[in-house]
Amino acid sequence: MRKILLGAAFSLLILPGIGGAAFAAAAIRISVSVLPQACFVERVAGEHATVHVMIPKGASPETYEPTPQQLVALADSRIYVKVGAPGLPFEEKYLRTVLDRNRQLTVVNMSDGLKFRQGDPHVWTSPAAVRIAAQNIAKVLIAQDPAGREEYRRNLLAFLREIDTLDQEIRRALSAKKGYAFMVFHPAWGYFADEYGLTQLAIEEEGKPVSAAHIRQMVDLARRKGIRSILVQKGFDTKSARAVAREIGGEVLETDPLERDWFSGMRSFTKILAPVLKK
Hints:
The chain is of the alpha/beta class. It folds into two domains: 23-170, 3-Layer(aba) Sandwich (Rossmann fold), CATH 3.40.50; 175-276, 3-Layer(aba) Sandwich (Rossmann fold).
């Protein structure tokens, strides 16, 4: 009798509109490349989507390679929201393979309409760029799920208001710092710097090994500008950054441009950055 009941239950799960099928229809499966994108999708989609992040916490977007299991899971997604900026080999190399496996997958470039920095994928560190990303995400959601159009539009407007509030907070915090500079190990904050009139000085050059000569140049530059803090990305090797910090008698400060709670990450970075900027 138990086997008969289990068999009947399984049959109900696979019938159209019942059980598992009904549950699957309730939420659109969306995959993204990096953690902050999950925040963007969730803000716009609300409860209409489940989000799968391909590049895990602590991994470098510039070097990460997905596991076979991740690629299989990605093939089950209905929408892929890619960063779309240069410098993400993950997207350039693997999305074509995924599209071959899943012809129904819709790929949307969240950065469509943006002007890129050379070789820099970190567009999400710019609130202005995230405004554009939010609108691109809303467009694809409405196209895929017209019945949810009004909710997506309401969510989008609320999200844009939150971004505007954040932008105003950052501008107030940095209002007296325009033209100032900060030093980083990995150049993850270039879009942020451009938006707020700052200069990012990077120890690492386009992901290449850092030479002793380059470290010496950065030490000299830091001394000339009075820079005493080196910002490092959470999860990255800090050996070279600490070498520079020792030479200038300074410190290493950890930041996280890949925090899933994008608003919290941006506010934390601004709080860390404001007191260490130098003319």
